[in-house]
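Form 7-S
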Amino acid sequence: MAKQRPLQFSLDRGSPVPLYFQLSQQLEAAIERGELAPGSLLGNEIELAGRLGLSRPTVRQAIQSLVDKGLLVRRRGVGTQVVHSQVKRPLELSSLYDDLESAGQQPATRVLHHAVEPAPAPVAAALGIAEGADVLRLERLRLAHGEPVAHLRNHLPVGLLDLDAETLGRTGLYRLLRQAGITLHSARQTIGARAATAEEGELLAEPEGAPLLTMERTTFDDTGRAVEFGSHLYRASRYAFDFQLLARS
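Output:
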């Protein structure tokens, strides 16, 4: 593993924002842009502190904040190494696959389940169908840079889409819906959090009890018909939802 070429940082010493936070934000941005690729070495704290004219504790605090986020790891005998960038997903009607692809995260899909089954009550209510009616249940593991990011479970009305597991493993569900001529118009979505079970932790490469983000979404087409109900789990260490809030006038 070659050491990363020195990056350029712009620190404003007259700003009320602490220097360690300015440095950590710029390092995180470099990781997200791919300037610091997974596996690359950051360099030691003494060299970085000397180059930037900062104290070693300031640099250590900046690095530790990214270690705490799971973006960096300290390895004895190796140094501080980039692990991965955190996926930040905007809250809009888009698929995880497309968001990962546009961010250069090299998405991949492992199809875990693909079958027609009777709809349980919550699924039937979300899709506006009778309980026990047939639905297509899909279960997938979504990966980025070869690492699991999310466990996705979706239910679709039968006959909506001619879909096989091989096709589903190559691309995102929303892309396939659009290719089938279905216009996705709106969605109702709920976001939460909970601890991972042992089974979920094993699937997502997290310890039992690790924090997971949850999302339930019912998506509607331009006629108002419910076309899918999703119940998803995301690794909080690798994934975040991005909000933009506007003041109400």
